[in-house]
Specification:
The protein has 19 helices and eight strands. It is an alpha/beta fold. It has an eight-stranded mixed β-sheet, with helices on both faces. Helix 8 (180-208) packs antiparallel against helix 14 (316-345) and helix 14 crosses helix 18.
Length: 480
């Protein structure tokens, strides 16, 4: 039988199944394979029944069913599993065939895999897919990168199944070479961590003020109708309205110990390696880690002293402003990180286009992203979002309420790590002078690390014999 499938997909967990049905909805013939054959059989007999989807019990049969150039998408667990499947799949494919990794792979793995696959005469696409189960089924945000030659072969399929903005523009476009696609998805997930944390802190403050859950839901719905219009704000209102079987708010019965799958941590690690201050995402990751120390926190609550955690009335507009301003900081830091990575890896990222990919389909989708897209369209070389007129004015309008909230939270003993770290970054970034001169003096005092002077040209380094007992030998100045 002649090959008649347009694309193959390996890995029929929830995301894989929904992407396959999405492809079939758009007229593509899909060949599927899962390591456990019964999963394939159940999928074909269940949700995929009647669709142009064919199952195969071996990788050889899957590859034989595909039109050339063959395109096979992997939806398997990130890490060794991807390498294992690729090791079995690549020898079955011919020159010019394409392997697509649609999982949450670490971008450095994608850089390596792109080089390995291209060395075999094949093409590789490492693509971020965001939107969860619902997005995969009806239109996710897709961020492909890897072998540039592959784009013309996969563009139609990926853009057809992606989410669309109001004017029909697909939330999928080529991001860049190597690991660029997975890097952008990683930063997206890091920003997602931050978005969730700033929302959680607003909820915490509302609870401390004694607001009922319907009142909190009303507030989030009101915010969602304005500048904070977003998917996460919308579902937060729905969560706060949801009641358990006994009529009480279900959210209060959920253990306050948050999990994580690693992409937020990877974002923070990359920020450290590139020397970029992605402080809000870092605090969001650490907040989850602290939350996991549940038993220790319960013990500490009975031992350590501090304010009561009760909060007097705060204007809801002030909490909204704290959330909004912190969100702006988080995104500005995320784009700072992508800019640094683009320079490091020579990816030539288009930041306006990246923001546009996130406008629909993904977890952080929000009207706010239109403002970011516009900022980079106005000034493609924009150094920092905070320097755009729109965001500069927004921060000016929001900071009074933001500062009021942080002060009130500190006085009440309510942790707001995202709001406070974002404010510290904002104040640091707008400071022409910081106390780092003392840090450099200390480093030179104990380690002869040298320093630069404000009254001399940058790049000229000095050392002082601070005690009169040292010498002229220095450790040199460098950035690790």
């Amino acid at each position: 039988m002649a090959p008649n499938a347009d694309i193959g997909l390996i890995g029929l967990a929830v995301m894989g199944q929904n992407l396959v049905m999405n492809m079939a909805d758009h007229g593509y013939g899909v060949a599927v394979y899962n390591r456990t054959t019964s999963v394939t059989q159940q999928f074909l007999a269940g949700p995929a029944q009647g669709m142009r989807i064919e199952g195969h019990e071996s990788l050889e049969d899957l590859v034989a069913a595909l039109k050339k150039p063959r395109k096979v998408m992997l939806m398997v667990k990130a890490g060794p599993a991807v390498d294992a499947v690729m090791g079995q799949l690549a020898p079955l494919m011919d020159q010019g065939d394409i392997i697509i990794d649609g999982g949450n792979s670490l971008f450095t793995d994608t850089i390596r895999r792109t080089a390995e696959v291209e060395a075999r005469g094949l093409l590789f696409v490492g693509t971020g897919v965001s939107g969860g189960e619902e997005g995969a089924r009806h239109g996710p945000s897709i961020m492909p990168g890897g072998s540039a030659e592959a784009w013309k072969h996969v563009q139609a399929i990926l853009q057809d199944i992606s989410a669309k903005v109001a004017d029909g523009t697909p939330c999928c476009d080529w991001v860049g070479p190597g690991g660029a696609g997975h890097y952008v998805k990683m930063v997206h997930n890091g920003i997602e961590y931050g978005d969730m944390q700033v929302i959680a802190e607003a909820y915490s403050l509302m609870k401390a003020m004694g607001m009922s859950h319907p009142e909190m839901a009303d507030a989030f719905e009101d915010w969602g109708a304005g500048i904070l219009d977003s998917f996460l704000i919308d579902i937060t209102a729905q969560i706060l309205r949801f009641v358990d079987e006994d009529g009480s708010p279900l959210v209060e019965k959920i253990l306050d110990s948050a999990g994580q799958k690693g992409t937020g941590k990877w974002t923070v690690i990359s920020s450290m390696e590139l020397g970029q201050p992605v402080t809000l995402v870092a605090e969001a990751v650490f907040a989850r880690i602290v939350s996991s120390l549940k038993s220790e926190r319960v013990s500490a609550a009975g031992v350590l002293s501090g304010p009561s955690g009760k909060l007097g009335p705060l204007p809801l507009e002030a909490i909204r402003d704290a959330l909004y301003a912190s969100k702006i900081v988080s995104y500005s830091q995320g784009f700072m990180l992508m800019r640094s990575a683009s320079e490091e890896h020579d990816w030539d990222l288009d930041y306006g286009r990246i923001a546009s990919l996130w406008r629909e389909g993904c977890i952080i989708r929000a009207a706010f992203l239109d403002d970011i897209t516009s900022a980079y369209r106005r000034r493609p070389g924009l150094e920092n979002l905070l320097m755009d007129d729109f965001f500069r004015d927004a921060m000016g309008s929001a900071q009074s309420g933001w500062r009021q909230v942080v002060v009130a939270a500190v006085r009440a003993g309510i942790p707001v790590p995202a709001y406070s770290s974002a404010l510290a970054f904002y104040d640091s970034y707008r400071s022409a002078v910081l106390p780092a001169n003392l840090l450099q003096a200390q480093r030179d005092f104990f380690g002869a690390h040298t320093y630069e002077r404000v009254d001399r040209e940058r790049g000229e380094f000095f050392h002082t014999n601070w005690t009169g007992r040292g010498g002229d030998t220095t450790a040199g100045s460098y950035q690790a």
